[in-house]
Amino acid sequence: MSTLPLLPPVDPSVDHALRLIVAGASTESTCATDLAAGPWNFDAVPGYGPGSSMGDVIPTGAPRQGELPVAYREADEDELHARIRAAKETLGDRVVVLGHFYQREEVVQHADYVGDSFQLATAAKEHPTAEAIVFCGVHFMAETADLLSGADQAVILPNLAAGCSMADMASIDQVEECWEQLAEVYGPLDAADDEGLVPVIPVTYMNSSAAIKGFVGRHGGIVCTSSNARTVLEWAFARGRRVLFFPDQHLGRNTAKAMGVPLEQMPLWNPRRPLGGSSSAELQDARVILWHGFCSVHRRFTVAQIDQARAEHPGVRVIVHPECPMEVVDAADEAGSTDYIRKAIAAATEPTTFAVGTEINLVRRLAAQYPQHEIFCLDPVVCPCSTMYRIHPGYLAWVLEELVAGRTPNRITVTADVADPARVALERMLAAKPPVAVA
Ligand code: 13P
Ligand code: SF4
Prior knowledge:
Elements: H1 14-22, E1 29-30, H2 70-74, H3 77-91, E2 95-100, H4 105-108, E3 113-115, H5 117-125, E4 132-136, H6 139-148, E5 154-156, H7 172-186, E6 198-205, H8 210-218, E7 222-224, H9 229-237, E8 240-246, H10 249-258, E9 268-269, H11 280-285, E10 288-291, H12 303-312, E11 317-320, H13 326-331, E12 334-335, H14 338-347, E13 353-357, H15 360-369, E14 374-377, E15 381-382, H16 393-404, H17 416-432
Parallel strand pairs: 1-15, 2-3, 2-4, 4-5, 6-7, 6-8, 8-10, 9-10, 11-12, 11-13, 13-14
Iron/sulfur cluster is lined by residues 53, 102, 138, 164-166, 207, 295-297, 359, 385, 387-388.
């Protein structure tokens, strides 16, 4: 059995930790030693690259990144940082760089704003005069920023291969097909009963494609984030008999369970099986139909890790993300979004030991930021979100220097037919609960 680190790391960089592991200079272990290599080694290869999501099946239509010019592949860390700083200085207010909480340290240090996916989309909206928004996150986040930013603003994803394996688990074709099958079970899906409730309201997690958000907008549904999922489900139950929740089964199950929905009334929808694998009677009885999706990063957390943390660190406070499996959320002291985790640690007044069940880049950054606490990741294996990790400083330097040269690389554009209903679904969420202020 591996042991948990006794002290928080002084250096928050996951990249540095991986290099030490690969060099044999660290006793830590990683899920994939390939992570220490440049992401450009994987851009042309179908797949999510090394790391926790590499076992997931990438959809055939997922975007691929073209070859990064050799000057960026061969530049060392110091040169890349100098080039990024110089390009940012030249561009000034014309560009805003956004970095997600899970982004690697070497990129986050250049971000004008660091936050969760929704806070960053809000930050994009709040800079209407910036010509370019460089989004150092994953594809669905850049799409959301494009939805909320001005039409003449370019949202740029530095590496197009930075997708999200969970978002890719619900394709628009599969969701349309599911909707048709549900209509066979429930009858017309837009027909309200005598209590004014329609048979089913679609709810999508922010971690989904713009096409899915558009689908939800067209069918009376709504978007949620991990911080407002309960409010959104309450909104949906005020309008429908049941909810179709996608793509993350765990966020859906954890939230609905906390609201008192029995597990027997939460069937799983497997898009590869007729009626998702349930009977018509089970679907009639359902309150929340859970799409068969998950996050490969958060699925790594286990109850055994929590037991070990409690045994080795009496009094430890265990906080996990609601994308973790239900058993893990149940065994933890608290569960909440990335921003909840950050705020909970920031608010602790006494030195505390925290075992955190979320992505390693955020956990190590928090450990470095709050040295008065002992903060460690529940998973002893260094295994970042491999898709987010595809954004290396080399790509950030490349897109910024392209902008300086008057070119706009890797622009993420959501077409109007999708964007209009997707915005409706996002606006319903905003009306259900106001946005959280940008950090
Ligand atoms: P946030 O919505 O908190 O940014 O989380 C995004 C994510 O990908 C969690 O796995
Ligand atoms: Fe997607 Fe999971 Fe990575 Fe979040 S942590 S971007 S859900 S793969």
